[in-house]
Design brief:
The chain has about 325 residues and is α/β, with parallel strands linked by helices. The chain has 2 domains: about 1-145 and about 315-330, Rossmann fold; about 160-310, Glycogen Phosphorylase B (Rossmann fold, 3-Layer(aba) Sandwich), CATH 3.40.50. The chain contains 11 helices and 14 strands. The strands form 4 sheets. A 6-stranded parallel beta sheet has the order 11-10-9-12-13-14, with helices on both faces. A 4-stranded parallel beta sheet has the order 5-6-7-8, with helices on both faces. Strands 1-2 form a two-stranded parallel sheet. α3 (about 95-110) links the parallel β6 (about 80-85) and β7. α5 packs across α9 (about 280-290). The protein is elongated, with a radius of gyration of 21 Å. The protein starts with a strand and ends with a helix.
């Protein structure tokens, strides 16, 4: 197995880790234009294919990656299959006449793949709506951890309600909203911010001004997170992103997350948490207050979080979906 990938842009705050199994080939991402016109050219992709000579290729199903058609043609010319992997194809906000053109072009782009893997059921439905055969679409919920095997035992509520955030401290995570929301709570919950990033200094200044009880503990990973999750009653992610949501659920926590690209839809449900509009601070305050007002309900929701990541959404299930997609190409 081999992985070809370029480095993320600095503002994405994504750090590459080391691979223990797969071969890693570092490519060069050439970023073109910006905003709605952004494109990325993956320099060296065809050279890597020539050197590695794979039997099957899985690549991001994103039309902004302009080297993708060349890679697909390279594989198909040798009688080999290509699987596209992506978030889905949400409706465009462009003017109506451009929407029709864009939808047609997206369908043409997707048609080059032999199968598709989506992060969510919403994404799978979007691919099917563009005409891609549903029997060739597989859902692999994005996961960062195996099914939990450790025992989780929680009090109904800690003496003082405790809220935790885990993630990079970036503007898009809206941790400032979480600090402001806690300042509005009559229960004055304990707020623990786990993570580091470019916004930390600003957030610490804000917390000192309006909610001095906020605790910043820095970046923690793996087993280092366990005591912080154990001391929490509720996990809150007011902005986008959030692979830590699954980790929080594995520790039996109910969750509040902002609605995003669909990857949270299957993970966060009415039984284990709340999804709030991403641009609605009032909704964050209202839902946080609601969650902190009913200890028994929060306890039940935490149990459901644990069940979901134990039985439905974890790395084992994700891998199984990839295997099904790969096996489907044999026939």
């Amino acid at each position: 197995m081999s992985l070809f990938a370029g480095m993320a842009m600095d503002e994405e705050s994504v750090k590459a880790g080391k691979l223990q199994i797969a071969n890693y080939k570092l490519g060069e991402n050439v970023h073109l234009f910006g905003g709605a016109f952004y494109l990325c050219y993956q320099k060296g992709l065809i050279n890597w294919l020539t050197d590695w000579n794979p039997d099957v290729l899985i690549m991001e199903a994103n039309p902004r990656y302009i080297a993708t058609p060349s890679a697909v043609k390279w594989m198909h010319a040798r009688g080999r299959k290509v699987i596209g992997w992506g978030l889905g194809a949400p409706p465009s906000n462009s003017p109506h006449f451009l929407q029709k053109w864009g939808k047609r072009q997206r369908g043409v782009f997707l048609s080059q793949f032999d199968a598709l893997i989506s992060y969510s059921q919403r994404g799978a439905d979007e691919y099917a709506a563009l005409g891609f055969p549903r029997e060739k679409i597989f859902v692999a919920h994005n996961s960062v951890a195996p099914a939990p095997t450790f025992q989780v035992s929680r009090p109904k509520f800690h003496e003082k309600p405790s809220i935790i955030f885990v993630g990079r401290l970036q503007a898009r995570k809206r941790v400032n909203w979480l600090i402001r929301a806690c300042a509005e709570m009559g229960s004055k919950p304990r707020l623990v911010i786990v993570g580091d990033g470019p916004e930390r200094e600003k957030l610490e200044l804000l917390a000192n001004e309006i909610y001095p009880a906020t605790e910043f503990v820095g970046a923690k990973h793996g087993a280092e997170l366990t005591p912080y999750f154990a001391e929490a009653d509720l996990f809150v992610l007011p902005g986008t992103g959030g692979l830590a949501v699954q980790e929080a659920m594995a520790h039996g926590l109910p969750v509040i997350v902002a609605k995003g690209d669909g990857t949270q839809d299957d993970l966060v449900r009415a039984g284990n948490g709340w999804q709030i509009p991403p641009e609605d601070y009032g909704a964050l305050v209202q839902v946080t207050r609601e969650a902190l007002s009913d200890a028994s309900r929060v306890g039940r929701m935490g149990e459901e979080s644990l069940r979901i990541v134990t039985e439905e959404i974890n790395i084992e299930k994700m891998v199984a979906s990839f295997v099904r997609a790969l096996n489907s190409l044999r026939y």
